[in-house]
Amino acid sequence: QVQLVESGGGLVPVGDSLRLSCAYSGPTFSSEVMGWFRQAPGKQREFVGAITRDGRYTSYADNVKGRFSVSRDNAKNTVYLQMHYLRSEDTAVYYCAVKREGYTNQTSAYTYWGQGTQVTVSS
Q1: Would you say residue 30 has pLDDT above 70?
Q2: Of 59, 88, 98, 102, which sits 20 to 30 A from 20 (CA to CA)?
Q3: In which region does residue 59 sit, left (phi positive, over 0), alpha (psi from -120 to 50) or beta (all else)?
Q4: How far apart are CA 4 and CA 21, in angstroms?
Q5: pLDDT tens digits along 44-69
Q6: 3-state SS record for the chain
Q7: 39 within 8 A of 46, measured Cβ to Cβ
Q8: How far apart, in whole angstroms, are the C-alpha atoms of residue 121 and residue 13?
């Protein structure tokens, strides 16, 4: 069974940086895209960023573009979300997921999800 485990969340001040990790285990999928999503209380889960299997291409939501970056280390089966210039609006539970099919920025395109890690940005 596929397992995704996020880590690295915490409480940080506005303007700081934080790196989240997502460790992957289980069957390996071909043509896989890994995505990051976040969900704040009372809000819908929203797309943050994604990366292709080979790490060549990335995609980001407009409100994080230029501040966040997705990378991966396939030797470690780990995907990262590096966050800079954090804002209070970035406070949310962050999830990683593996894409099945569909649009990369849609939650419905992803089959497997991690348990999430909490990021809280103080103001």
Answers
A1: no
A2: 102
A3: beta
A4: 10
A5: 999 999 999 889 999 999 999 999 99
A6: CCEEEEECCEEEECCCCEEEEEEEECCCCCCCEEEEEEECCCCCCEEEEEEECCCCCEEECCCCECCEEEEEECCCCEEEEEECCCCHHHCEEEEEEEECCCCCCCHHHEEEECCCEEEEEEC
A7: yes
A8: 5
